[in-house]
Amino acid sequence: MKDLNSQKFEENWRKALSDREIDPSPSVWTNIELDLMQTEGDSMKKRVFFYQWVAAASFFLVVFLGGAFYYNSENDQAKMAAASKPENEVASKSNEVNSTHGLAKPEIPVNINPTYSGEKNSQAETDKKTSQATVSISLAPVLQKEEGKFLQTEKFTPFYISLSSRSESTSSLQLFEEVPAVVHGKIVLPRLVLPAIPAAFMNSSRDKNKEKENLWASVGVAAGSYNPGGGVSGNQAFQSSIPTSANSGKGVGYSDPSRVGTAYSAGFALSKRVFSRWVLQSGVNYVSQNVGYTSNYVSSSPSNQSKAFVAEYADVSSLAVTITNPYEINSEINVVSLPLQTGYLIVDRKIGWQMNTGVAADVFVRNTLTDESGNLDRFSQGSGQDSPYRAVSWAGLLGTELSYKVARQYRISVVPSMRYSLNSILKSSASGTSNPLVLDMGFRFRYIFK
Amino acid sequence: MLSEQELINGCAKGDRAIQKVFYERYCRKMMAIAMRYARSTHEAEDILQEGFIKVFNNIQLFRSESKLTTWMTRIMINTALNSHRQKLYMLPMVDVMELQIPEDEGLNLADFNLSELILMVQSLPDGCRVVFNLFAIEGYGHKEIGEMLGISEGTSKSQYNRAKSLLRAKLIQEDGKYERFK
Description:
- The complex is a heterodimer of chains A (450) and B (182).
- With 450 residues, chain A is α+β, with helices and mostly antiparallel strands.
- Chain A is 27% helix and 35% strand.
- Chain A is built from seven helices and 13 strands.
- In chain A, a hairpin with a 4-residue loop joins strand 5 and strand 6.
- In chain A, helix 4 packs antiparallel against helix 5.
- Chain A is elongated.
- Chain B is mainly alpha-helical.
- Helix content of chain B is 70%, strand content 0%.
- In chain B, helix 6 crosses helix 8 and helix 7 packs across helix 8.
- At the A-B interface, helix 1 and helix 2 of A face helix 2, helix 3, helix 5 and helix 6 of B.
């Protein structure tokens, strides 16, 4: 009876109060509207600020890559301009041979002995404030003394990237620490100092309702600068193996690569989102790396064909080599690169921004040496016993990808990136090392699977 | 006249004109709910405002599996509970002795106007008012209410009993009105 009475109480109140309507005051809608406008305004401000930040970051990245490319080009030109002096100067200091006929007289090897290193070092200290090139040369003999080994400083100019002018201006912007180093003929890259990404931009997307892109394929091309890194000039044994008759009084043999060449690549990539913001991507790229050489080596084949030749082949080639007047060579290295990268999606909206890092296995295809004057035959060598190049070498990859969704299943993107060889692309039996650095800008077209 | 789905789609796109139509269609129903949980009209309008902003910001999450008004009612109740939660924690939600309530009272509230009834409910202490609304009007069980408010089932029951007795007392006090139910 009590329960029934209680139920009736609740039923009465439910009937009395359920599904009733009461007019609120008109000010409620006004307040709601103001609140909604404020929320949208805040959201818009955040969005605008965010895109401004992305634009600024992209700008600085382009400036950085452009600056690095420009600096390398300038440095290369400076080196070429200075190249006419040093060998003769070196010769006159160490051997006290005064030659007024340049290449007509026999030249000494460019190796620098410890006595000379000390002299060069002290002179370099006085020159330190004039150019970074001088600083870099001055460091090498110090290392030589410590390790008790000789380095060919002309060949191992330390690699150096800086946006500063070559004079030591402390006010200039530098993205790398100024610690150039040459250790055992290997280039040690300076430490990269990157700005931190503000934590506010690492938030997950608020747009939870949007369609997720989980798998996509892309094709793309890229072009940029190529720095062969390291150097080779043929070892002593190779030098002495060249018969005097073949020398023809042309001096010591050498082949100098330019500091900066060009790199092109085209490829295909497949990317899979493995977590909400992490992407795993792989693919295949065909890469062409071109750099100019000044060489005075010429190889002769059994059929008496004279071919372009550089010192990289000194220890592996069975070809007869003679020394001639210096001439220009274009060296093209072709590799098939198999990258494996992880990407982090910083922005995952209509505009996308992704940071990528990973490694690539570079499968050597061939090296082609072309005499630019056309007088000599082309020299081409694939991988194998007669090649100084490793069949497979490893490269570290670092880059970013800015994309724009042009349609439901398509994106286009620009991909500034860097690749640096983690090990020398030359075999350990070859005289010297080469750790190429490529800074390039790529363009990709992406198809998103649904 | 726009259909319910058209209203939902328009609101999801942030169309202000459609949001206004949506508000005008449902605001009175929602205001009646807010009034029951609030202590005053002013407080009810605050709940209504906050509740509608939540509705507009989350309408893309609404699935047609439930009725739109049911979904909105839940949002209004949650908003009201959140606005009370601080007060509820501060209030001593202790068990109240079972009151002896006359069982022969056949209450019929049909002759009371809505504002009178609302005023009676609003005059209840916060804890009693919330439990009364959740149990008597919304139909939640005491166990659910206990979980929602972070109180024991027994406390919910005793708060409800207290609400009941207070409401009866209110009706008795209103002699003239009470006479109408005799």
